[in-house]
Amino acid sequence: MAKQNTPIDSSPEVLEATNDIINLIQTGEYAEADYLLDSLLPQQSHNPDINHLKGLVAYHQGSLQDAEQWIRKAIFIRPDVASYHNNVGNIYKANGALSDAEKCYRRAMELDPKSADAISNLGTIFLAAENPEYALTLFQQALSIQRGYIEAEVNMSSALLALERYQEVIELCTSLSSRKIESSVLFSNWGRALKNSGKFFDAVDIFDRAVALYPEDADLHHIRGTLLRLIGDLEDGWKGYQWEPHSTESSRVIFDLSTERWQGQSLEGRTLLIYGEQGIGD
Hints:
globular
């Protein structure tokens, strides 16, 4: 989500409380932030920043409908704040409504042409629309406005990967890692670029680091497993294949069957239905 503006039309006490809430959101302490917001709302129901922050907390807690309602209220009170429109765009994007998200990002850019957040977020819309060339120009534009903007740099690595500019991806991700920046997207792009450059063992090293940091990420496990099989480590490689049904990288067709999946338990007295899938080993 976008950075916060200096709170609007607030007393020193409310300003201090608002800054405390912003810090709590930035450190992921959403329940504590929500508690403080609820204590302020009875007297600050028409404060756009309080409504906006309430929406951000709902967003981070996964309540997208509530998040939109709160931020829409902030926009109704102050329609000229770019970050409000940007964050509604993030909600639409999370819901898969990319066209609506694009409109919000463009509105944010109209209000603030130097909003690196909105520019970078607009780039992700074009990246999703398979236009990495234009997405890359937007990420570069965001970085020209806000040097060292991590989100834009990570997004840029995704665009470069889509453009098959693998060496640039490797260099960018190496630089980000040297600055102690970590994200599952960064590691995924880095490892893929190494894999596509034929540097399989280096790629495995990156995915080893990635799954240690993000042990529940099915995509990272699945790609790592594929790499291990490519270099001949079949025992560990096939363990990674167990993550494939949960991975967005999977090419297999998953049939929607009403029966339970077989997990290796005894089949005595039962029937096993086997169907073909388009995947490794078929």
